[in-house]
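ugh finaly. both done.
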Amino acid sequence: MIKTLLIKSIGTYLNTLSFVSKPYAANKALALFIKPRAGKINESQSEFLATSQQEILKYNEHSIMTYYWSGTKKTILLAHGWESNSARWKNLINLLKQKDYIIVALDAPAHGNSGSKTFNALLYSEFINTAVKHFSPEIIIGHSVGGMASVFFQNKYQFNGIEKMILLGAPSEFKDVLKRYKDMMGYNQRVSEQIDCTIVERFGSRPENYSTAKFVETINASGLIIHDELDKIIPYNDALMIKNNFKNSKLVTTQGLGHSLNNEVVSNYIFEFIED
């Protein structure tokens, strides 16, 4: 209740501010949207990640923290989602280690031990590209916006070594993600429209042009899409849109596993797919 009132009060404040300066209000609104409030690594997570070989890569002025576990099979790159970090993969990593895969995980921009004060999927896709060039994985597994950023990466760079891509609870349309944020905050039309204009100014394209479903059309790798039918964060329909355009993919629908999909059932689907 208190959190909801705080959110609405911020929205009301920025709506009022928009009548003084729309660009200023939109910049403040966008700053809230792209700055994660969680995702830093706690003590127990740090202990687990310490079992890896850690290496910092660079993209422009940003540092990218990567974690590496050795093996003899193919290399799998793991890309976590919003307000998370590489430790979210602990259960899956332990199972992959038992099967002797080479595992690489990276922390997203402004998450975990990576650099940047703000996050966006385009920057994340460049982090992923940097990690892919360094580690040459054959398989990418991305959760939520990590799945979206993985698709953005492969659409742009078409890395030939990628054989399989697994998308867990991935959003399809950035415009829909943005709309849910606008609705949650209660922004008026002045703020909402100016946010879109600011995105064009910063990134060169409108929000509706950033689409996982559209970008997967260019991907030749085999795809596995796993999405919970009752996902409260990313609607199940997003998975259907991605599946319709991902030419060499299959969709697995779960029930009751939520958005995190951090479950042994999901791990079994992943193993079945990567070992096929």
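ok and the 2nd:
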Amino acid sequence: MIPNALVAPADLTAALDRFRAAHGRAPRLGVDLDATTADTVGGLRTWMGEKLSIPLAERSTRFPDLDQYAMWIGDDAWFVDMPDFLSHFGHAERHGFYLGLAVFDEALVTLLALEAAGCELVAVTARSDEFNSDTREWIASNGLPLATVVHSGFDKHALEGIDLFVDDAPPVVTGLLKAGRSVVVFDQSYNRAIPEHDRGTRATGWGAPMLAAVTRLLTAQAAVD
């Protein structure tokens, strides 16, 4: 057994058994990377802080947490406008930014627990496939059980063969819900205005909250489907 590993609770195991009985296969979970599995905002704060030589103690003030899903909108905007953001972020992407991102606490053990319980896990990312190599290297270096990587853009609702998504981005989440897809909303300050939905539930982090959220949606899906 992996040290400090999570064990799937009995209700998740029961939900998986019902899903397999109904569909003849395991559920396929599409797991987002940026700001869901990877601390992309924190990574960009560090990247920009180093590039601009901003002292560590001042970086959170210069680059505050996001209340909107945009780093160029609002009084505390990180960048002047979208072109300014795209210029800086594009430079970071092309110079190995993704390789240095931290994995959120308990993401690894939670994904391993879901895999051990019988879920099929797929990385579904809005990143360009130009960065597939860096993405796969990051996944492997962190031991994440995400052998398949799908570069979807923001149109994740158009993907077939995914039974449940885990995502943070408001445009992605709303698109999935409108299409009748099931999604765990990974809690971030900028997505808390997303209304409740019978196909959606919120996880305040990895670990027990994520396992409970996946259980709720798989149980609800089995009842509907």
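summary for the 2nd one i guess: The chain is about 40% helix and 10% strand.
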